[in-house]
């Protein structure tokens, strides 16, 4: 071992030197060179820092630099996150998105353009005027629809969600408020009254018939029973002609 190389290192180094830092790393750790002023110092990390990607070899695991416009990358030519001012698309960092795509400033990616989508129209509403459905001949009817997909920044805007058109109805008078209920209550009362009247009349009729029946029964009891006339043939006694 070189006199400047030590094996009793700290921070995950397998071998190190006082001037260059880590020279090799313990298993599963990545070796990376960090600039410290005019010189580079070797360090051992569990994962590669921003702007680097990890490569594993049988003898050593290293962190290699991404492309200049990549913030993080999977390989040198495949970025997973771009630096400020660039948009990610298919592993590349672009200043401008291709045709048919738009820049998403929230995710800093090139995404597909989304157009607005609306549902089918609802049926037309009843013909109304000033909130009423009676007392007029010409009014308006309305139909509506809902937005089911809102557009992206470059997508087609949403259409109107309501439509109105003129309508004509057969003119009819408006019922006064409470009049319909009043008429129903009066009709119900009249029906109840008629039913009660019929019930009373039936009760009176049954009472009168019962009283007449009882009167006839009493009259029959008070009259004397008629005696039967004797049978002349039976009352004749034979005459004794022997004397």
Automatic annotation (TrEMBL):
Please classify the protein's predominant subcellular localization into one broad category: secreted
Residues annotated as domain R-spondin Fu-CRD: 11-110
Source domain of life is: Eukaryota
Keyword annotations of the record:
Disulfide bond, Glycoprotein, Heparin-binding, Repeat, Secreted, Sensory transduction, Signal, Wnt signaling pathway
Subcellular location(s): the record lists: Secreted
Question: Residue ranges under compositional bias (Basic and acidic residues)?
Answer: 175-219
InterPro entries under this entry? Furin_repeat, Growth_fac_rcpt_cys_sf, R-spondin, Rspo_Fu-CRD_dom, TSP1_rpt, TSP1_rpt_sf, TSP1_spondin_dom
Family designation? Belongs to the R-spondin family.
Q: What does this protein do?
A: Activator of the canonical Wnt signaling pathway by acting as a ligand for LGR4-6 receptors, which acts as a key regulator of angiogenesis. Upon binding to LGR4-6 (LGR4, LGR5 or LGR6), LGR4-6 associate with phosphorylated LRP6 and frizzled receptors that are activated by extracellular Wnt receptors, triggering the canonical Wnt signaling pathway to increase expression of target genes. Also regulates the canonical Wnt/beta-catenin-dependent pathway and non-canonical Wnt signaling by acting as an inhibitor of ZNRF3, an important regulator of the Wnt signaling pathway.
Describe its assembly.
Interacts with the extracellular domain of FZD8 and LRP6. It however does not form a ternary complex with FZD8 and LRP6. Interacts with WNT1. Binds heparin. Interacts with LGR4, LGR5 and LGR6.
Name of protein: R-spondin-3
List the source organism.
Pitta sordida
